[in-house]
Amino acid sequence: MDITLDFSTYAQWSAYATLAVFLLSVIGFVTRWGIRFRLVGITGFMLVLTGGLFGLGLGLFSRVEIPGSRQFSLVYDNGGNSTVISLPNDITPSELEATLQQAANDLFSYGRTALGGKSELSIRARTLIHPEPGVSKPLYIGQIKRSLANRDDATMEIEIFEDKLAQLQQKSK
């Protein structure tokens, strides 16, 4: 079953229902029905519901899909300007670049603050290697820096640590 989240359509139908209840309310007052005050309450509730649906229809769920990106897990986020994501060991350089761009898009928020005077969001990508049995070591393989203020940042700095990726590929063989 496919349920769409087209809130603008829901808001439109809710507005029609609100208008119908409002007209019923007016008729109730003119004809002095006993439930006329309840109809006023229902109209008020319908107005609030319609306003909420309209607000959600303005684009709350806008998500950009970067082709070639891999799934990542958020390991650390200070709510400000620094995050760390975890990636699988078999990632390629092109997938790493696409995943860093996807993470930069997904983790952007106007609510983030510039801690320590830095006005950019830094996302570091890491994976775990196991140099010996029972020991895990994080290996940072790339990072991206983007603006905290501009959603459509065209000046994102992507840095891929080629030596660390080569080390990762040697470990996986």
Features:
alpha+beta; 2 domains; 4 helices; five-stranded mixed β-sheet; 173 residues
Give the SSE map.
Elements: H1 7-30, H2 36-56, E1 73-77, E2 82-86, H3 93-106, E3 120-132, E4 135-147, E5 157-160, H4 162-172
Parallel strand pairs: 2-3
Antiparallel strand pairs: 1-2, 3-4, 4-5
Helix pairs in contact: 1-2
Quick summary:
With 173 residues, this protein is an alpha+beta fold. Helices cover 40% and strands 23% of the residues. The protein is elongated, with a radius of gyration of 26 Å.
Can you give a write-up of this model?
This protein is an alpha+beta fold. The chain folds into two domains: 7-56; 73-172, no CATH class. The chain has four helices and five strands, in the order H-H-E-E-H-E-E-E-H. The protein has a five-stranded mixed sheet. A hairpin with a 4-residue loop joins strand 1 and strand 2 (82-86). The protein is elongated, with a radius of gyration of 26 Å. 14% of the residues are buried. The mean pLDDT is 89.
